[in-house]
Every structure is written in structure tokens, then in C-alpha cells.
Amino acid sequence: MGPSPMVTRYRSTVRASLTAVCASACALGLVAVPAAPARAADTITAADQPYFSYYHLDQARAKGYTGAGVTIAMIDGPVDTSRPELAGATVLDKSPCQIKPDDGSRRHGTEVASILVARDYGVAPQATLYSYQTVSGDSEPDPACQDVSVYTYASLINHAINDGADIVSISITSLERQASLKWALARAAASGTIVVAGIGNTGNANDEGSLSFWSGVVGVSAVDINGARADYSSWGSSVTTAAVGGPIKAYDYGTAQMTQTVGTSISTPIVAGFLALARQKWPDATSNQLLQLLIHTTVNPDGGWNQYTGYGVASPATMMNTDPSQYPDVNPLADKGGGSSPTPEEIAQYADGVVPPAEIVFDNSYTYRGLDESVLGATTNPYPTHLGTSPRYHAK
Known about the structure:
Strands 2, 3, 4, 6, 8, 9, 10 and 11 form an eight-stranded mixed sheet that branches. A three-stranded mixed sheet has the order 1-13-12. The protein has a two-stranded antiparallel ribbon with strand order 5-7. The longest helix is centred in the C-terminal third of the chain and has 18 residues, at 264-281. It has nine helices and 13 strands. The chain is globular, with a radius of gyration of 20 Å. Helix 5 links the parallel strand 8 (167-170) and strand 9. It is α/β, with parallel strands linked by helices and 396 residues long.
């Protein structure tokens, strides 16, 4: 293998040079990603990934907990499905546009996808994984993608919901705060799609730099392989839970060598995978009850919430052995404090069809039912419009 593996901490920074509309990592589509021919020694196995034994995932598989029947959407870099560890996994690119990826985004996307669905060490190896590519690092958008709104997280979350995803995993942090993102997350809450996002790796408070800032989003921080808080992990009021953030083994496209990485980019898909296992085990539970299950089954010595690990370290074994039907069908992350959004009223506005169409992007389920006649025929309104038909106007 040559020199000792490198260790990389993913800072999860994103390119901010596209436009004001696309001020963070922007989603594009897949181009062919050539990979160096894999040697047998390059194949990554469960023995290389300490989280696998830490969480006793071999026992989960022995009991049939594999994520079968669950669809996870991953918003990240491109996935190199020619890597041997992804052989046999169901990974489908659903990106709306193409990008020219850099080596870092290839590694990141392939690494995160492998944590989710690699047959040997993925948390949910039989889940279906949909990949939606972002622009990050030195990746570049394809000039053919003229509509910058298609690159945003709002667009990609809506594309994932359009495609039927149960869970959306986002490891790359973002400062994106457009109204369209608020309404995409309102739709996720209304439709029962769970969104999981990493808090980041600044080692400082990072609520403003993470998508976990938003109401309803599962914010994930990192602990080390001993269960102690990782010093690189960001923290804040948006943290929901924590999971092992590495180190794990990954293939580095720039050096064509194996590397070791740590970060909330690792802990985030681990938690998303746990939720996929819970969705498989408890198919009749609502998404709100699964979120209740997550926060009520953590390893948490003090029994409360804190800004470093949220409600505690996620525990898949306890999640699999605790019936979520005992919990109320109420989203426990609906109010993260500090004026978090979308609020319950905003979610109701979306569900009732009274959000201005110009603020919603790539949502194939939306119908405007408000009273604003100016939206009729407007170029900013691509949605079906039935004025005055919102249920809020016809309350009993």
C-alpha cells in the first residue's frame, strides 16, 4: 500500500461564485466518472470502517435490517459506481443537470454513498440510493444548465421528493437561506420526507452555516470511536443527534491512494442509514414518530439536550427494539428556537396552496389555490392554479 494513509477532515466548504441565487453548493447532473482500475488491495471492507463494529451492524443484518424497500436521496458529489465496494448496490443518478466534478467531490460523493449502501459495510445496504449532484470545491456546472435555480438545495430537495425519496441525506454545509428552501422544507414536513444534514466541521458554533438550522431537519454532529465528542465537530442549537464521524477508509482520486477521513460528512449518512433501517422495521410509523424514536432512544447519560450532541448519540439497536407507535405524531424538531423556520403555520400555508408560486422551485405536486389573480399567466408561475380553492377559505 505504500505510505501511511492520509487523514482528511472534510470542511464541507462550498463554492459561492455562481450567482446570488446559487450562493452555496449547487446541484448539477452526472457526467461519466472514470475510475482507476481497482486492485484487490484497494477494495474497502467492513473491517476498514470502525463504525461498522461500533454499531454492531453485522447483527442488524443478521436480523434482516438492511433498509430494503426504503429510498434514500443523497445530495452530494458524484458517485463512482465502478468502485468495487459499490458492486451490487442500487445507486441511481437523478441529478437534473451535469457537472464537471473535481477529485474531492468524487471522493466525497462516493464515500458518502458507500457509507449508506455499500454491500459490505453500508448502514442500509439494500436501500435504493438516488444521487443528486452539487457543485462544490472546484467542480464546475455544465454551461447547458442555464437555470441557476436548478442548482440550489431547494431544487434538489424538491427533485428528491418528486422522485419518492423517504429520507434525504445532505453532508455538505450551506449558507443558502432563500424562501424557496423554506418552502421545500415545508413540503418535506408536510409530505413526511425526513431531511438529515451535517452541522459541519469548524469546531465552533455553526448554526448559520448548516442546513440543520431549519425546522424539522435532523442536525448531526460527530463523536469519535469511543463515543466522545469529536473536537472538529461544529455545534449549536440546531444539533439533533450525533454519530461516529470516523475515521473511515476511502479512495482518493487525486493521489490514487487510500486515505482516512473524519467529519460530520460521515456521521450524517450513518444517521440517515439508521432512519432507513427504522423505516423498514416500522413501516406503519409516521415520519414524525420516527423522529420521536430517534431522539428518545439515544445514548444520553444526562437525559437532556445539549448543543454538542443534541438529544444524544444515535442508537440503532434501541431504535430497532422500540415501537415508535407509542410516540405522538408530532414533529419534535418543529421549533428549534431562535425563530426557526418553516413554522407550523408556514407548513400549513404550503399544504393549503397559498404560497406565491414564484417562491417555489421544481415542485411537481404544488397547486396554487390562493386569491392573487396576478399569478394567472405569469411567467413565474409554472404550477396549476385554482384561485380561491384553498381549504382555509372553506373551513367548516
